[in-house]
Design a protein that fits this description.
The strands form eleven sheets. Strands 1, 2, 3, 4, 5, 6, 7, 8, 9, 10, 11 and 12 form a twelve-stranded antiparallel beta sheet that branches. Strands 30, 32, 33, 35, 40, 41, 42 and 46 form an eight-stranded antiparallel beta sheet that branches. The longest helix has 9 residues, at about 170-175. The protein is elongated and about 125 Å long. It has five domains: about 35-205, Jelly Rolls (Sandwich); about 215-350, Immunoglobulin-like, CATH 2.60.40.10; about 375-460, Immunoglobulins (Immunoglobulin-like), CATH 2.60.40; about 470-705, Sandwich (Jelly Rolls), CATH 2.60.120; about 720-950, Jelly Rolls (Sandwich), CATH 2.60.120.200. It contains four helices and 64 strands. It is mostly beta strands and about 950 residues long.
Length: about 950
């Protein structure tokens, strides 16, 4: 509840403390046990038994009497303990135990436990100097039936007796755990070392048992959620506070213990204590509220604790900090200890963000788009690719608008364009698809953080462009493949032909992902002579004598022979063939000079080597220039929407004459010298033909190369690989996708496949998983994602600049990563998520890079979904760069900086690894933490798809 002068309702700390009936556990069942790291028996006659095994005597042993000693001597036992298991713990109680196996007499005699100085292998009688009395016991055990009643072997326990104030074992162990001395040495001896009746024997297994609670530590990731997102901020200056845009902001932080609990260790009973103040009008600070979270019960280490404030004052400035409290109940008494406080985080309340701006469309020389009033009044204007002009103005209630950002519904909001000014006109709104489009516009009024307001939505309709003459999606999964080209045109359905069994079938590995199919040719046939499956239309699908474009998505599985994707045969030769060449190791588009046995091939060859086992988009263009001059006819090849190879003129052949194919379009074979040959092996999907020559700038080619789906404007993104560490076991992560991608195998050390919530645990020094890559065509668009938990304790010890690689693909020469997700330590000591690409030349030298970093520090010790997107069709400078990198942490897109574009064609090969990577010429950069899942998709997801398919689909 809000009260005067910017304060909020105050709830005293003590009102939220646990009641008398609340019990906070301690680590007691069983207590932590720590065995001696060194031990020794020393004797008055000069002997010593270092790190002894078995039982040895303590006290005075005489040569006379019924029990024989070879010489009169006195023994003492020394046990030295390391602080490893109890460092960073708050000790509540301690017990030293020694196992007595024999006693000289049935009568009890006193045994004393004292703390001494440190020991070593060279320690001799009388041992280190005695520092303090720890306790004593008057006991006799180990004589069995020789006594009445019997006295079996038993543990003798030394524990502080409240009635004996000189016993200091618990206080000493507490100081030991607090680091006040580095080693704890305890001596076990007879109280009366001159009395042979006190001679006893003890085993070598003495130990120290400690009841404790973890000490609290400074909270981590303290901040305020200023709006409705999931990104927190902690601005340290009152003059530059975080702007909070809601009346009930959430403050939060992660409670911590000094030592990271391991395995099943007790993780503490912790609470956060938030202390919040507000700035008064006189410049002084006053208490707003102090609150424990949770108010009842507790949470364990590494828990993010949120607190939603119940009302803050508009325009008021606040600050808050946080500490971790560790609670316990022991012997019926409650207690707590607190960490230090985190730094102050400052925020100011400004909930009055911009309203929806006014958006109007402008007609320029009668061209442009108009707003849809309703479904019956929504005229289609202009073809895809036509720029539109729009003016943005602030709402009449807004007086402080500084600028805008805008994007189309078919785009990714991470690539939203920004403009400054209160009223602006933009002329570069270019819709790429036909049908309904929405222009989204937001105004901002906070210059430092660009706080955006409500979203205005402007709906308009785009007309039909010059559609493809024919398209075969192979989505049926059975029967014939339907031609779904331009409505009203003659359809040319394709039939699958199997001259040999299983040579032309349907595959569920479709380029559009789930529930899609593709044409599978000769995949399971190993005998080359029997690889004769194909598909074909019954008649010619288009006129090869005129300009045309053909394209297809291909998943090639065999590179040992020529593999024809598409062709249009005549009697003796083919008017064109789009194929893979094993001698050139890449894609080729060629045209037969004439339909004769002696035809000459006019061909153009891609610059970039082809990659097998990945989805690749290939397209061939024949251009007559729409004139009668056959000498200027050309062919051109596109791979993944980008021109490759030379534009080759038909004049390369003196016998050239444009000719029309007389037979049906062939999927998976071609004709040469009168015979069909060069049968394809692999998958073919999304084949399209246009009766015109497409250029690199044409929307149709770009849309096809990005597999944009007309139904929703989103790119198709099939899941190529999914390695799941949660359900895997043994020595490898199994791929769960439909594609023939192998497992990721664990390194010989440093990697443990625990499964369950822990997944794959990596030690940060040697552990990783790897397989032979690549699994995607990296000259095309792709998306990669990892669900990862960073080990904060191990990462904090790394030097600034350290990279811990999460997931990546090595370059061909090694030493660098063609693409990678990683976390990097900044000069200021924080960690940022990054996604980037690196190109190298034939010698392995870096020739290009592009990367995006997170806008906030990486969360430690909690699962985070990190997603990298490479969009090969996106260019920051009108085509001069080749593609762009983007990064999303969980669902939130990161703002791209100046280095996000990528200027080279690059295809990685060699190791595909998670948990380590390649950079700066070396392969290492190990990741401390755990991986839960790793996934790879073909295609560049937009923000909505990441939220649905990545974060929303575990």
């Amino acid at each position: 509840m809000q009260v005067a002068d910017g304060s909020v309702s105050v709830v005293p700390d003590q009102e939220l403390l646990r009641g008398e009936d609340t019990v906070f556990p301690v680590y007691i069942d069983p207590p932590i046990g720590t065995g001696a790291s060194e031990k020794s028996v020393i004797s008055s006659d000069g002997d010593r038994w270092w790190n002894f095994d078995g039982d040895y005597g303590v006290g005075r042993c005489y040569r006379v009497g019924p029990w024989y000693c070879d010489a009169d001597h006195t023994n003492r036992m020394l046990f030295e303990f390391a602080p490893t298991k109890i460092s960073g713990m708050h000790v509540l109680d301690a017990t030293f135990r020694a196992y007595e196996t024999w006693s000289f007499s049935c009568s009890p005699h006193e045994i004393e436990l004292v703390r001494t100085g440190n020991m070593s292998e060279a320690t001799r009688w009388p041992g280190p100097s005695e520092l303090d009395h720890m306790g004593d016991q008057n006991v006799s055990a180990g004589r069995g039936d020789n006594c009445s009643p019997g006295q079996p072997d038993k543990w003798i326990e030394f524990h502080d007796n409240p009635a004996e104030t000189d016993e200091n074992l618990t206080a000493t162990v507490k100081n030991f755990a607090d680091g006040k001395f580095s080693r704890l040495t305890l001596m076990l001896k007879a109280k009366n070392e001159g009395d042979p009746d006190a001679w006893k024997r003890f085993e070598d297994n003495a130990d120290l048992q400690v009841i404790y609670v973890p000490k609290p530590y400074l909270p981590n990731n303290v901040g305020v959620l200023p709006g409705y997102g999931n990104t927190q901020f902690c601005d340290k200056s009152v003059s530059d506070p975080t702007i909070v845009t809601r009346k009930d902001p959430t403050i939060r932080g992660m409670v911590q213990t000094q030592q990271q609990p391991q395995g099943n260790e007790f993780r503490g009973s912790l609470r956060a204590l938030f202390n919040t103040e507000y700035l008064k009008s006189d410049g002084t600070w006053a208490d707003a509220f102090t609150v424990n979270v949770p108010s009842a019960g507790s949470v364990p280490d590494d828990t993010v604790v949120p607190f939603a404030i119940d009302g803050v004052a508009e325009g008021a400035t606040y600050r808050f900090n946080m500490l971790t409290e560790s609670y316990w109940t022991h012997n019926g008494q409650n207690g707590k200890i607190s960490s230090g406080r985190s730094a102050w985080c400052y925020f100011k309340v400004d909930t009055l963000g911009p309203e929806e701006p006014d958006v109007t469309a402008n007609l320029v020389d009668g061209r442009g788009y108009v707003e849809c009033v309703d479904a019956n009044n929504c005229p289609a204007r202009e073809a895809p690719g036509t720029p539109g002009s729009f003016t943005f103005k602030p709402d009449s209630a807004d007086t402080d608008v500084k600028g805008y950002r805008w994007w189309l519904s078919s785009d990714n909001s991470a690539g939203a364009k920004k403009v400054t000014g209160a009223t602006v006109t933009v002329t570069d709104v270019v819709p790429l698809l036909s049908g309904d489009q929405r222009l989204f516009v937001q105004a901002y009024d906070i210059t430092d953080r660009e706080r955006y307001g409500a979203t205005a939505e402007f709906k308009f309709r785009v007309g039909i462009g010059e559609q493809e003459t024919g398209r075969w999606r192979f989505a049926e999964g059975t029967g014939t493949a339907e031609d779904t080209g331009v409505e009203g045109s003659i359809r040319h359905d394709a039939t699958l032909y199997q001259p040999q069994p299983n040579t032309a079938t349907w595959s569920p590995r479709g380029r559009r992902g789930d529930s899609d199919w593709s044409l599978a040719l000769n995949e399971s046939v190993t005998d080359p002579a029997k690889q004769v499956g194909y598909a074909a239309t019954s008649t010619a699908a288009f006129n090869t004598q005129e300009s045309f474009t053909v394209s297809a998505w291909v998943y090639l599985t065999d590179t040992t022979a020529n593999r024809a994707v598409l062709s249009a045969p005549g009697t003796h030769d083919s008017a064109f063939t789009l194929l893979y060449s094993p001698t050139k190791k890449t894609w080729v588009f060629k045209r037969g000079s004439k339909d004769a046995a002696d035809a000459v091939n006019i061909e153009t060859v891609a610059d970039q080597p082809a990659t097998a086992g990945v989805w690749t988009h290939v397209a061939g263009v024949f251009d007559t220039k729409n004139d009668t001059n056959t000498a200027n006819d050309t062919i051109e090849l596109f791979v993944n929407g980008r021109a490759q190879g030379a534009v080759v003129a038909s004049s390369k052949s003196s016998t050239y004459s444009p000719w029309k194919s007389s037979n049906g379009l062939q999927f998976g074979r071609t004709k040469t010298k009168g015979a069909f040959t060069q049968y394809y092996r692999g998958n073919i999907d999304e084949v399209a033909v246009w009766q015109r020559a497409l250029k690199a700038s044409d929307i149709e080619l770009r849309t096809d190369a990005e597999a944009i789906q007309s139904a929703d404007g989103n790119p198709a993104v099939p899941l190529i690989a999914h390695w799941d560490a949660v359900s895997s076991s043994g020595t490898e992560l199994t791929n769960r996708s439909a594609y023939p991608v192998g497992p990721l195998k664990l390194s010989t050390s440093g990697a443990s496949l625990v499964g369950g919530d822990e997944g794959l645990v990596l030690d940060g020094t040697a552990g990783y998983v790897a397989a032979a890559g690549p699994v995607i065509d990296e000259t095309a668009s792709f998306t990669v994602s990892a669900n990862v938990t960073l080990d904060g304790a191990k990462l904090i010890a790394k030097n600034p600049g350290y990279r811990a690689y999460v997931f990546g693909q090595a370059t061909p020469a090694g030493g660098e990563s063609s693409w990678a997700l990683w976390v990097e330590k900044t000069a200021g000591g924080g960690y940022l998520w990054k996604f980037g690409r690196t190109a190298t030349d034939g010698t392995g030298q870096v020739i290009g890079s592009g990367q995006v970093a997170s806008e906030f520090a990486a969360d430690m010790d909690i699962p985070v979904q990190v997603t990298g997107v490479f969009n090969a069709a996106k260019s920051a400078d009108n085509g001069a760069t080749y593609g762009a990198t983007s990064l999303l942490v969980n669902k939130q897109p990161m703002t791209a900086d100046a280095d996000y574009s990528f200027s080279e064609l690059m295809q990685g090969s060699g190791a595909l690894a998670a948990g380590r990577g390649s950079a700066d010429g070396t392969t290492a950069h190990y990741l401390p933490g755990s991986l839960h899942s790793l996934r790879v998709w073909a295609g560049a997801m937009n923000d909505g798809q990441v939220g649905e398919k990545v974060v929303g689909a575990p």
